[in-house]
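INTERNAL AUDIT FORM
Audit reference: QA-55
Scope: verify that the stored structure record matches its stored sequence.
Auditor: D.O.
Record contents follow.
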Amino acid sequence: MSFYFFAKIVNTANNLIFSCDIKYTTNIPKTTIFDHYGHGVVIHADTKIEEHVRILHNVTLGGGRNATQKGAPHICEGVMIGTGACVLGPIKIGKYSKIGANAVVISDVPDYATAVGVPAKIITNNSK
């Protein structure tokens, strides 16, 4: 039996109550934390999220940047994404990295790095 209809109902209720759009085909681990009830969060259906990721409100994990470049972000283990951040395109956010509030990330972020600004720049890289 398919749960497609039930998933659509839950997705619609989620949109109405929390003003967020998380596609029902997205695979999100149980250890992912959405602060502030995930208000305003938008997650592309193909986005890959690993364990222990923290996502604050109004975050966009989007698809391709233009018609020729398609794909969704890969968020590695232990990443923290700040309020209002946009992670766009088929990029990888490295392990235990931090994305600052309102940053627009359009290129890969290495492990243990901090990215801030529009477009996002790496300000620290505290590699182990």
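Auditor finding: record pair retrieved intact. The CA atoms of residues 11 and 24 lie 6 Å apart.
Action required: none
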